[in-house]
């Protein structure tokens, strides 16, 4: 290891030398500068070995300078913020950064698992499928854990992420992906035309390849042109420039996904700020100017540290003033690669040789070679020698068969450029092949999108600017913006001149996919074994399936497949492109919605009062509901619930039932409308009365139930179950708007308008008399069972009172406007004190409904008919209603259907459990003898034993029969008696009294 | 996906709920079991433009008839259900 | 005779803590809860849209909105809430459902929503940035102008959103009606979204 930033050039680069930053890699302290990435700082410090490979644990270095990096993956940060598989090439350096190499043990320099290399012959394509076949039981216990330990990449933090993420929407006329020359030119044209523009750049500075390759635009050095362009764009109020933001997906209707790394460049996000933000961007038009990715050439030892993409080497030298090597060899098959030789010489580095696979080299480059004194070798790199210390010796096969050796500590490779066709292909688009650049380019794009610049196969600077500018202007025009776009920025177009070369045959491992350790011979083996289709090739070898999604490997892989199968590259084709373009943290997709904010929460009007009482809450859908109200000294929930039930049955209690869905049904045809949605009649209901109603689905299965009251000729107040409130509203609107548009009826949700309390127990009337104005007649005659009307309360408040009972006791439900809900709870406590009033929760509510045999969610479970629930007689024969015809089908009226029945263990001390299957005595448990199951259970304080409801074949005909409750889940099997489902007050005298 | 609600304008998918094929018409009360069976269960498996019911429950609560290409998700037409905005039609 | 009173409690009573929240310095977002209002949903009966509009004109002196917008008088806002329907928002007691019943008899069905919603007003130079985290609709000043309204969703919750008159300092004002039982949850989500910009929280007993 060399000294502190020994590989940093004295001048140049887009780094701030006044801002030194200290960081640690594998426990060692280094320094870098603001403007560095972790990778560039490692390069500046002479660190070549940064990780071990996935399968063979081979030493690996830095291959690229961007988000396509397959090798330089690190664990960034520590503790709960440890983030595995972070690309050193995009991780922005900050003071105090901590990173560790991955996939090595015990250390990067000495890795035990590198022994895998010796077994390399067995780690071939399809290795897992072929090797771990037998015995099957070894898979979970032995093979999988061992494989997971040996393979894989970084380690997850294992604890909750302490940082925050959020999500946001953005809207624009023109969205631009990428801020290279094409993207910036597109932004200029669109911005000048008056369009709302969003420009996303994944880097932390704008410029794309201009940052490394420079050039002259409109007579200005690239850096000055970028600054001038940025100033012009920044002055436009409707142009939004988002750096550190990757456009990762294209969705329907002009919706795009982007991830903004808001504070990844800081050790910890500032207080109140998020780490990352997920953007959903709605754009009328999109210019995909995401550039191109330089592609490797596959040869033996091409994964040796020190072997680097030629363009990446220029990035490190020009952008970061960091030298990856002192004596550089260049292996290229195109003119563009030569820029690295030019850069090296301009920076005072030695060029050992240029190995050019083409027959001819331009006169200018030949002159450069002779002037600088390096040989130009026509041929190809056959192999690279060197280990974890990096490349040392390069063996070259010269055209004509001779061999040559070159000594160098760095090898720059350029196999040409692949346009980034991800964005344009995400709607199952298949790119097309262009012979002149030997690359796939977009063939169309999702609606509203167009590719420009290198992403479209235009590699010259002038062409990028022209295409970008024209695409930006056209996009703005299509979006309806017609301002003057000015003139297109001008630059020269460089020659490209490429001779395709994918793979140099030779001895030793030649890697196609470096992240997944897929070699050229794996691809050849896949072809021999018949996995010739690119989709099969991908799955069989795992080529392109790593976190980099094969950005540097896919095209080479399928070119090799094409060669061995005797096809052309376009005949071989590409796999399907799918988002995301870069890995996106699950935390970003979750955003705000985690922990207590996992979903929105609904609170009842008396929630805070109940919390004061010490209520235990239960999540019911989005609601928090009081489940029971424990008192000091009660040993468990059952004791509390039993006390609440007894208090209601012997005195009086109340429960907030505001969670029921409540719907105002208005209009002259309201009654007729309800007749069609309920199985029973509502047009005949008298004003001032309530009725229990049952709704079916059109297929004849029960949908929902509840009481509906008629408050006026043209006004009904309908209630639904808590669970189905939203769905019933949707269903009723469907009926109103789609099925029965001829009816004059209006629907409004009033679920949140009313705080509704059930008041139950023999003392209910006494308590109500304290609350309700004395002028109101609450007697059995003045307010009979199923009465419903508006009343005035003491103090003048208007309320609605319904004489309905779910508990089987004398009961009312009372509704007050919701802002009085808390006052109502407090007043019931004060007024009810002399009568021993007790608040009760959903558990006691459930116990009393089971004792009373009322059906609820477990019985209205999407499989039961009205008849199954014992409510078949409610079905009117005088009218049509939803579900009527299908409810009459043979199977739905079969005599052997499972119907609701009461169930109690014969041993009174035995606890009944829901889910237990009903099996006849003496039969073997199994599907053939399964006659139903227990749906709801409770401990009944009235009967002093566990009781339940169940759905049992011919249950109502078998009252008194002893059957078995078979519960394999809990390992239980016990006798139960089938009984009347109404355990309590079967005549209903109490609720009518 | 985005749907242009005829009442609210263009909105994102999350505001809408999908129901399904809008072609089957609920049979008259006396149409018989076979007709109702077809209405409830029989559906074309359309590859291409299809008329579908969508509910703008996260917005104006209108039921909509959306013509969507099931292969591309392209939406070519959106119209309100007969009873959405019915206050403007004849009594 | 027990002693008790009918205290009114806003669904945001516990959640709203007046003062500052989040990042220090000049607050980018101001949050206000407006209390003491009447809110009535007016839905035209079948074929009676024109009659409803006429009745609204007679009662309020302005045309009821027939597209997504909100129109104001001195003490009342009529806010579009869907096809053939709008909300009447007024200072408490001004246009109660009882008072409106006669005006719309035969032309519209009325439903009292006074207690069903909480009214939150959001303003400030970061109001749009904050709302972009919660709302999928485009609130650009040229697209969602003063008086624009939307029946839409935030945090999977139905809301009614409209843009009020700009503040005296020129900053935009967004009014939001949220269902009462969701109000506390949405309030916390709003605070979380606004924290990075700094928030000033107040509550007002009446409509501005």
TrEMBL record, chain B:
Drop me one GO molecular function for this one. Answer: sarcosine oxidase activity
Q: What class of enzyme is it?
A: oxidoreductase
Q: Cite the Pfam families for this sequence.
A: SoxD (PF04267)
Which controlled-vocabulary keywords does the entry list?
A: Oxidoreductase
* EC number(s) given by UniProt: 1.5.3.1
Biological process, per Gene Ontology: tetrahydrofolate metabolic process
Membrane-spanning ranges: none
Q: What is this protein called?
A: Sarcosine oxidase subunit delta
Q: Which organism does this record belong to?
A: Mesorhizobium plurifarium
């Amino acid at each position: 290891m060399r000294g502190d930033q020994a590989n940093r050039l004295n001048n140049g680069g887009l780094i701030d030398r006044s801002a030194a930053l200290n960081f640690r890699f594998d426990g060692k302290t280094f320094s870098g500068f603001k403007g560095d990435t972790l990778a560039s700082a490692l390069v500046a410090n002479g660190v070549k070995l940064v990780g071990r490979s996935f399968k063979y644990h081979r030493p690996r270095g830095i291959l690229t300078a961007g988000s396509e990096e397959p090798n330089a993956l690190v664990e960034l940060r520590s503790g709960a913020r440890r983030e595995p598989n972070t690309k050193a090439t995009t991780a922005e350096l900050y003071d105090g950064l901590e990173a560790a190499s991955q996939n090595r043990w015990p250390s990067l320099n000495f890795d035990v698992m590198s022994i895998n290399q010796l077994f390399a012959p067995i780690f071939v394509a399809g290795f897992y499928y072929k090797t771990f076949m037998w015995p099957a039981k070894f898979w979970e216990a032995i093979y999988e854990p061992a494989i997971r330990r040996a393979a894989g990449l970084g380690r997850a933090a294992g604890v909750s992420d302490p940082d925050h993420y959020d999500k946001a929407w953005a809207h624009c006329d023109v969205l631009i992906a990428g801020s290279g020359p094409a993207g910036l030119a597109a932004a200029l044209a669109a911005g000048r035309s008056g369009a709302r523009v969003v420009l996303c750049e994944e880097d932390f500075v704008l410029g794309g390849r201009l940052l490394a390759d420079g050039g002259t635009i409109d007579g200005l050095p690239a850096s000055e042109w970028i600054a001038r362009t940025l100033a012009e764009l920044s002055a436009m109020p409707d142009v939004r420039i988002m750096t550190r933001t990757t456009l990762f997906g294209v969705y329907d209707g002009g919706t795009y996904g982007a991830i903004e790394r808001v504070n990844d460049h800081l050790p910890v996000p500032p207080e109140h700020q998020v780490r990352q933000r997920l953007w959903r961007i709605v754009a009328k038009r999109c210019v995909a100017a995401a550039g191109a990715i330089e592609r490797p050439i596959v040869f033996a030892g091409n994964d040796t540290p020190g072997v680097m993409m030629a363009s990446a080497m220029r990035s490190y030298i020009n952008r970061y003033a960091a030298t990856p090597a002192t004596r550089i060899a260049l292996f290229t098959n195109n003119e563009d690669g030569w820029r690295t030789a030019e850069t090296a010489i301009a920076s005072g580095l030695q060029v050992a040789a240029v190995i050019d696979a083409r027959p001819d080299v331009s006169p200018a480059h030949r002159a450069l070679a002779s002037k600088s004194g390096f040989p130009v070798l026509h041929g190809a790199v056959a192999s690279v020698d060197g280990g974890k210390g990096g490349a040392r010796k390069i063996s070259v096969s010269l055209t004509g068969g001779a061999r040559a050796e070159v000594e160098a500590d760095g090898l720059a490779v350029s196999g040409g450029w692949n346009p980034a066709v991800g964005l344009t292909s995400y709607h199952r688009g298949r790119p097309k092949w262009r012979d002149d650049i030997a690359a796939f380019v977009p063939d169309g794009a999702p609606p509203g999108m167009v590719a420009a610049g290198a992403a479209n196969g235009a590699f010259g600077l002038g062409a990028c600017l022209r295409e970008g500018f024209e695409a930006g202007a056209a996009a703005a025009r299509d979006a309806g913006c017609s301002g003057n776009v000015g003139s297109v920025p001008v630059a020269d177009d460089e020659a490209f001149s490429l001779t395709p070369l994918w793979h140099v045959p030779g001895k030793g491992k030649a890697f196609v996919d470096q992240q997944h350790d897929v070699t050229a011979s794996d691809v050849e083996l896949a072809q021999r074994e018949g996995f010739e289709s690119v989709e099969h090739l991908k799955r069989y070898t795992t080529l392109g399936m790593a976190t980099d999604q094969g950005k540097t490997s896919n095209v080479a892989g399928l070119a090799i497949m094409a060669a061995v199968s005797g096809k052309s590259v376009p005949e071989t084709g590409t796999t399907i492109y799918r988002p995301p373009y870069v890995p996106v943290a699950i935390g970003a997709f979750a955003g705000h919605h985690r922990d207590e904010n996992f979903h929105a929460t609904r609170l009842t009007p008396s929630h805070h009062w109940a919390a004061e009482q010490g209520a235990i809450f239960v999540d019911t859908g989005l609601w928090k509901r009081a489940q029971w109200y424990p008192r000091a000294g009660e040993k468990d929930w059952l004791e509390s619930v039993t006390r609440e039930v007894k208090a209601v049955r012997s005195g009086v209690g109340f429960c907030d039932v505001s969670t029921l869905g409540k719907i105002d049904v208005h209009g002259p045809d309201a009654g007729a409308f309800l007749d069609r949605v309920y199985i029973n009649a509502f047009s005949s209901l008298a004003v001032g009365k309530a009725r229990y109603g049952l709704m079916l689905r059109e297929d004849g299965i029960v949908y929902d139930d509840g009481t509906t009251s008629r408050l006026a000729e043209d006004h009904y107040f309908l209630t639904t179950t808590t669970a189905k409130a939203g769905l019933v509203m949707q269903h009723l609107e469907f009926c109103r708007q789609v099925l029965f548009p001829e009816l004059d009826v209006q629907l409004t949700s009033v679920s949140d308008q009313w705080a509704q309390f059930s008041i139950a127990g023999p003392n209910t009337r006494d308590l109500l008399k304290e609350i309700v104005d004395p002028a109101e007649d609450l007697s059995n005659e003045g307010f009979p069972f199923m009465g419903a009307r508006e009343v005035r309360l003491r103090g003048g408040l208007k309320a609605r009172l319904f004489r309905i009972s779910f508990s089987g006791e004398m009961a009312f439900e009372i509704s007050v406007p919701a802002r009085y809900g808390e006052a109502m709870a407090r007043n019931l406590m004060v007024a009810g004190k002399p009568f021993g009033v007790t608040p009760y929760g959903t558990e006691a509510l459930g116990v009393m409904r089971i004792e009373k045999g009322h059906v609820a969610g477990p019985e209205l479970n999407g499989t039961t008919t009205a008849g199954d629930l014992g409510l078949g007689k409610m079905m009117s024969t005088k009218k049509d209603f939803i579900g009527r015809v299908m409810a009459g089908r043979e199977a739905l009226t079969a005599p052997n259907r499972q119907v609701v029945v009461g169930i109690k263990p014969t041993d009174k001390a035995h606890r009944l459990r829901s889910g237990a299957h009903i099996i006849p005595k003496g039969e073997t448990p199994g599907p053939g003898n399964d006659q139903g199951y227990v749906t709801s259970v409770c401990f009944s304080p009235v009967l002093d034993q566990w009781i339940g409801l169940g759905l049992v074949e011919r249950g109502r005909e078998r009252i008194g029969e002893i059957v078995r409750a078979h519960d394999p889940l809990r390992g239980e099997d016990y006798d139960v008696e089938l009984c009347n489902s109404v355990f309590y007050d079967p005549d209903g005298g109490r609720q009518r009294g | 996906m985005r749907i242009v609600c005829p009442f609210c304008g263009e909105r994102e998918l999350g505001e809408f709920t999908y129901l399904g094929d809008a072609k089957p018409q609920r049979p008259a009360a006396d149409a018989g079991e076979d007709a109702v069976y077809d209405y409830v269960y029989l559906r074309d498996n359309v590859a291409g433009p299809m008329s579908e019911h969508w509910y703008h429950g996260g917005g104006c609560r209108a039921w909509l008839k959306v013509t969507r290409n099931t292969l591309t998700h392209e939406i070519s037409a959106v119209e309100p259900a007969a009873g959405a905005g019915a206050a403007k039609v004849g009594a | 005779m027990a002693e008790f009173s009918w205290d009114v409690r806003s669904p945001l009573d516990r959640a709203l803590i007046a003062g500052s929240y989040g990042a220090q310095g000049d607050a980018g977002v101001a949050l206000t809860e407006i209390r003491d209002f009447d809110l009535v949903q007016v839905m035209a009966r079948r074929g009676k849209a024109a009659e409803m509009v006429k009745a609204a004109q007679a009662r309020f002196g302005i045309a009821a909105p027939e597209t997504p917008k909100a129109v104001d008088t001195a003490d009342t806002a009529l806010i579009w809430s869907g096809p053939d329907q709008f909300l009447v928002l007024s200072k408490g007691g001004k246009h109660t459902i009882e008072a409106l019943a006669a005006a719309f008899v035969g032309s519209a069905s009325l439903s009292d929503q006074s207690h069903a919603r909480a009214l939150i007003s959001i303003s400030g130079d970061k109001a749009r940035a904050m709302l972009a985290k919660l709302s999928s609709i485009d609130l650009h000043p040229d697209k969602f102008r003063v008086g624009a309204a939307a029946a839409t969703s935030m945090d999977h919750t139905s809301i009614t959103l409209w843009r009020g008159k700009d503040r005296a300092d020129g900053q935009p004002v967004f009014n939001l009606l949220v269902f009462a039982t969701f109000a506390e949850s949405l309030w916390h989500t709003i605070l979380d979204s606004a924290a990075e910009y700094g928030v000033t929280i107040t509550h007002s007993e009446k409509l501005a």
